[in-house]
Amino acid sequence: MIRALFFVGLGLLVGGITATVVGPPGAGVGAWGPGLGLAITAAVLWGISGTMRTIQAPPTALVRKAQDEGRVSLARIDALRQTGTQINDQPLCELELTVQPAHEAAYRTILRSVIPVSQLPGVQPGMRRVVVQLLPGEPDVALLDADAHAEIWSRTSIPSMAQAGDIQRPAPGGLREDGTRRKPLLGIGPKGRGWRAILFALIFTLTVTAVLYPYRAALSQSVYALQEHGQLHLDMREPYSVELALQALEREVGHDRVLNVRAYPEFVTIEAAVDATGLRADDWIYRRGELRNEGPATIQPEDEREFYRASKINWNAIWQAVRSAGQGGDLHLDEQTSYYVERGRNNEIGGDDYGKTIADPQAHFSFDNGYESANYTLDAASGTVLEGP
């Protein structure tokens, strides 16, 4: 279970970082922070559990039963290693033992145990100790506080390590009083390793997917931008990007009546009618797949004719005109360049509509290098330059 939590935390971390990189401001922050904490905590517990799992601390009843059944043996300590882990300020040690049972062949095994510092002199390599074989036919042993030089052991000879063969490691999992082992919910041995890898990969993938699902539009846009332009994010001034913003708006409000559309390198702002017939307008911003309502527009329209249909605008022609005008010279297209589309002013002098922004939609953009500037006005339906240098 700890391993599963680790991959959940890792999925939150990876998904959150990915969302932060490709999504709108603030995306993924609520995922990668907890994910990092969970992954670190689970990794630490995973390591601790791996250490504790191999510590032999058999129940007293199991040791007594093994003694009663005559599974007491003489063992030689071949090696003593401190693992670097301390439990209650006492070292966790690993002993390599060669065990000589009374009526069976000798074998080599490993005993991991917390040994108080004061007892370390009694477990030095070459020393003999009395041990008890906890389970018949298994390499698990426990040290006994008995005299290894008593008369009963005088005729017991322990073979060399080479003669005893390879080390037989105890199976993972602590022993219960009845001799059965405590096992984790998910196995840890070679058996089933492939299935566990698939399970952990699935947990990781599902977690990443859950984090990124709200930002799937931003993710798909980043994939498109990388494939088409070799950059992580879309240039929101391009026709494809503007149309994504307008499509998102139409899904949200159910129409495409707008007052103004402004395209910047990183986002698009839209002043759009609240409904399909009224005069009230809201400000919207579209950035990295997210459409957000910014509240009522600062200047509300006075005439419904100020609105225009965004779907009637030739965004391709406008962008081509911007790029064409911004090529070469001291005044050129750069990351500061933006453009906007709104209705032009009525210039028919003498009429009631003089000065109102009800004429055909026009696109406006400019270039500025700090010393000079150039302003352009286009017919938004065709991209034709109406005013310019």
Secondary-structure blueprint of this entry?
Layout lengths: L1 H21 L6 H25 L6 H9 L3 E16 L2 E11 L6 E8 L13 E6 L7 E3 L17 H4 L2 E2 L24 H20 L3 H14 L9 H15 L3 E7 L4 E6 L7 E7 L2 E7 L11 E2 L5 H11 L13 E5 L17 E8 L4 E7 L5 E3 L2
Parallel strand pairs: 3-6
Antiparallel strand pairs: 1-2, 1-4, 2-3, 4-5, 7-8, 7-11, 7-12, 8-9, 9-10, 12-13, 13-14, 14-15
Question: Describe it for me?
Answer:
The protein is an alpha+beta fold. It contains eight helices and 15 strands. A hairpin with a 7-residue loop joins β8 and β9.
Keywords:
single chain; 389 residues; alpha+beta; 25% strand; six-stranded mixed sheet
The helix/strand series, from N terminus to C terminus, equals HHHEEEEEHEHHHEEEEEHEEEE
Q: Helical residue percent?
A: 25-40%
Shape: rod-shaped
Low-confidence stretches: none
β-strand number = 15
Helical element count?
Answer: 8
Sheet with the most strands, sense and barrel status: 9 strands, antiparallel
Distance linking N and C termini:
70 Å
Oligomer: single chain
Beta-strand content: 25-35%
Radius of gyration: 38 Å
Which structural class fits the helix and strand makeup? alpha+beta
- Taking all residues together, what is the mean pLDDT? 90
- How many domains is the backbone divided into? 3
